[in-house]
Design goal:
The complex is a heterodimer of chains A (527) and B (240).
Chain A lengths: L45 H6 L10 H15 L1 H9 L11 H6 L6 H16 L1 H5 L1 H4 L6 H10 L8 H5 L6 H14 L5 H12 L8 H19 L14 E4 L10 H15 L3 E2 L17 H18 L3 E4 L3 H15 L13 E2 H11 L14 E3 L3 H6 L8 H13 L30 H7 L1 H14 L3 E4 L2 H10 L10 E3 H8 L16 H6 L3
Parallel strand pairs in A: 1-2, 1-3, 3-4, 5-6, 6-7
Chain B lengths: L1 H29 L15 H14 L1 H6 L1 H20 L10 H30 L1 H6 L2 H23 L4 H12 L10 H16 L7 H4 L4 H4 L12 H6 L2
Helix pairs in contact in B: 1-9, 4-5, 5-7, 7-9
The chains are: A mainly alpha (527), B mainly alpha (240).
Chain lengths: 527, 240
């Protein structure tokens, strides 16, 4: 793994070659068998596992328990059962995974990844696999198989791109979540995810940022906004009786370009004239319970949001820019922590910040000066879980239109990337699904390859300089890997950062003194 | 003797097919989907989901988006198989329904498309590295089995005809629990033997994709989680 060079700010012309950012983003690579076999995230320490209700370390009868767990999950989750049975090995998914496209390792083809588990399911749960294992590729669950699971089920970002193209809708994310749950149940957890879920349970956010530190951070941000604009914009914390609870990824409190997005939300709320608050108890939108396929852990984290909403007496819940968080919020929150009959039923529960902002733009409450983003030629990366596992607005596909509508309302130069790499076909950033951890940086860089090639195309064709995203993971991932592909780490922007640049607050002078912020600040961050 | 053997074979195969499928369909129907996981953009109404499933099952929409070659061969095979199967209803009905008469000529020539589709799919298992990698012996055998059925059938239709009247009398008899004489043309015996094999392995093989597609949550769920609370029975227990 090459050391990270965060200070690299090279122009596209001087791009370094990893797989080469030029070319067709979806070009099928030559096979590189076992190329990614050694890519493994750190395993969790016993204390991380125990806190989530899993055995601390690999138990003695792990094989027996894991096999039983496969059967249990097949009874509890129809998707798992049907997807294990239905695959015909047609090959439609084989060229759809960004990790395969980036690495050439055939075990990163969705069907091959599924087969790592399906082969074991067949061995113990099907007639053919019990009596004719060689015929159907059934395998005993050995330590080697388990090790292979650990490596390759942590090379799936659960982005669901394969599920779009499967004739039966088989979603590899469902299989990899189940595989991780099985591994957790025998004491083989992944450090990054399990440690973080523990922090949420202890402190309320992924970072382990305590209430006092959070309050100080927000105060600092309020001062920054006032310095920049001359207007006092509040970022309230734990204010009882506020109308809106904003739940946002904790990266929005400290990382670039996330923090510029938070400033954007604050400015929008300020101009809209609504009362809102953050919660220190539920100071995290992301829900890593999703990544490890644990309904119970996902529920525990979601219930914190419900409790915060009840304690603060809010009427609405709005989520900040975060991809998998929006999946859990939009698709699962009502299931996990509902019913939310104590909230105002006239608004979607929960609502996305972009739904809110787009409404305000349509109502005309925001004064926007698009020319303040004229130094940016922009494209937009559809974050995978927003694109394929959620919706915004009333109509299917609102999750594609609303962010673009907002971007076009605040930016004069907007260009979409190759249609086969955006919207429902979007290629993942390469860091989603619990893989945003530095020991697997090689995988992350390779997984970002297709997106980087698609970006390079619009850079060449339209002079695109920046890419916006609405996911905390995408933003962190890109700020780390874009330098590997010859883009500056500040080439990735928050959508609400662009809103923030363009918005003119009441009482703010229109002049050049309030220059668009972000680029300079972005360069410093993301250690 | 031969007639009795084939009669028993078809009764057993039918029982295994019907009960096997019933057990699997019951299992799929009864297994809860704990979370809303439609692959979005997804329809927001039940009728929308109906149309999504219709396009998936009738046009193989997702496969078309994915890979035009697999779609072409797969669609050719499945479409032709449907015609051929419907044509075969003439051996189980007396008098033959008018619309079965109508499709008879198409059904006969569909066998060529069926064979071509299967050969195309099989060729891909050898020629395309990615598909070769994911193929197990059973994937090849399944294609061999289907192709064997098609070729033995075509052989009877175009080269060495069997006494088709007697075949029909045999199957009409089976429907009334009578065993009549089955001609001993080799192509017929091969054809029927392979068909019975296919029926038997249907519920214990990847042919479960046929019922499975209707139970796939990413395709059959309505995208309305904010409006309507979705809760699996086992998940409801957690709330107590």
């Amino acid at each position: 793994m090459a050391p990270l060079d965060d200070s690299a700010k090279k122009k596209p012309a001087e791009m370094m070659d990893v797989r080469g950012p030029d070319g067709d983003p979806l070009e099928i690579p030559k096979f590189a068998c076992e190329a990614m076999r050694e890519s493994e995230p750190y395993p969790a320490y016993p204390e991380h596992n125990l806190k989530l209700g899993f055995p601390g370390e690999l138990i003695d009868n792990w094989q027996e328990v894991a096999i039983a767990k496969i059967g249990e999950l097949a009874k509890k989750n129809r998707a798992f059962q049907v997807y294990l049975d239905a695959c015909v090995k047609c090959g439609a998914c084989t060229d759809k995974c960004h990790y395969f496209l980036g690495s050439g390792d055939p075990k990163n083809m969705p069907v091959a990844r599924q087969d790592l588990l399906r082969s074991v399911y067949r061995r113990y749960y099907t007639f053919a696999g019990k009596y004719f294992p060689w015929l159907v590729g059934a395998r005993d669950l050995t330590k080697e198989v388990l090790d292979e699971w650990y490596a390759y089920y942590h090379q799936c970002s659960q982005c669901r791109r394969c599920s779009v193209f499967c004739p039966y809708g088989i979603d590899t994310a469902e299989i990899s979540m189940a595989a991780r749950e099985i591994m957790d149940s025998i004491g083989l957890g992944q450090k990054y995810c399990n440690e973080i879920i523990g922090k949420v349970k202890d402190v309320g956010n992924n970072l382990g940022l305590q209430e006092k530190a959070l309050a100080a951070t927000l105060e600092g941000l309020e001062e920054d906004i006032e310095d920049d604009t001359g207007v006092s914009v509040r970022i309230p914390l734990d204010e009882k009786g506020a109308d809106i609870l904003l739940v946002t990824p904790s990266a929005d409190f400290f990382a670039e370009p996330h923090i510029e997005g938070l400033i954007g939300y604050a400015k929008v709320f300020h101009q809209a004239g609504v009362s809102w608050t953050l919660s220190s108890y539920a100071s995290e939108a992301a829900n890593f319970g999703l990544f490890i396929g644990s309904y119970e852990n996902m529920r525990d984290v979601s219930l914190r949001i419900r409790k915060a909403a009840e304690d603060l007496g809010v009427k609405r819940i709005i989520f900040g820019e975060c991809g998998h968080a929006w999946r859990v919020a939009y698709s699962f929150l009502n299931t996990l922590a509902g019913p939310f009959d104590f909230l105002d039923q006239n608004y979607p529960i929960p609502q996305h910040i972009l739904e809110f902002t787009w409404n305000e733009i349509q109502k005309g409450t925001l004064k926007l000066d698009k020319s303040r983003n004229d130094h940016i030629r922009l494209t937009y990366h559809d974050s995978c879980n927003v694109a394929r596992a959620s919706r915004m607005g009333d109509k299917p596909g609102g999750q594609f239109e609303i962010p673009r509508n907002v971007l076009k309302a605040v930016c004069n130069h907007y260009y979409d990337m190759d249609r086969d790499t955006i919207m429902e076909s979007t290629v993942c950033c390469g860091g989603g699904g619990g893989l945003l951890t530095d020991e697997i940086m090689d995988l992350r860089v390779k997984g970002a390859g297709p997106r980087m090639k698609a970006l390079k195309q619009v850079t060449d064709d339209f002079g695109v300089t920046h890419m916006a995203a609405i996911c905390a993971i995408c933003k962190t991932q890109f700020s780390k890997v874009m330098p590997k592909y010859g883009y500056g780490m500040d080439s990735i922007l928050s959508v609400h950062q662009l809103v923030s640049n363009a918005i003119i607050l009441d009482g703010q002078e229109d002049g050049e003194d309030a220059a668009p912020q972000g680029d300079a600040a972005a360069a410093e961050a993301n250690q | 003797m031969l007639s009795t053997l084939y009669a028993v074979l078809f009764y057993v195969a039918t029982i295994l097919l019907v009960t096997g499928l019933a057990v699997k369909i019951r299992q799929y129907a009864r297994t809860p989907a704990p979370l809303k996981i439609p692959t979005t953009p997804a329809p927001t109404t039940r009728s929308g989901v109906f149309w999504r499933m219709f396009r998936e099952v009738v046009f193989f929409e997702s496969l078309f988006k994915s890979n035009k070659w697999i779609w072409l061969f797969g669609y050719m095979f499945h479409g032709a198989m449907l015609l051929v199967l419907l044509r075969h209803l003439r051996y189980f009905t007396q008098p033959v329904w008018w619309w079965v008469e109508l499709i008879q000529p198409f059904g006969i020539y569909a066998s060529f498309a069926m064979a071509l589709g299967l050969l195309g799919l099989w060729a891909r298992r050898f020629l395309v590295e990615r598909i070769r990698y994911i193929s197990n012996p059973s994937d090849h055998l399944m294609l061999a089995l289907l192709l064997g059925i098609v070729l033995s059938g075509m052989n009877m239709k175009f080269l060495t005809p069997t006494d088709i009247i007697s075949v029909k009398v045999f199957f009409l008899g089976l429907l009334r629990f009578q065993i009549n004489e089955l001609p001993d043309t080799p192509a017929l015996l091969v054809h029927l033997g392979l068909v019975a094999t296919l029926m038997i392995i249907f519920p214990i093989s990847k042919l479960l994709h046929a019922p499975g597609v209707f139970f796939s949550p990413t395709r059959n769920q309505v995208d309305n989680p904010r409006e309507k609370r979705h809760l699996a029975p086992w998940a409801a227990e957690l709330e107590k």
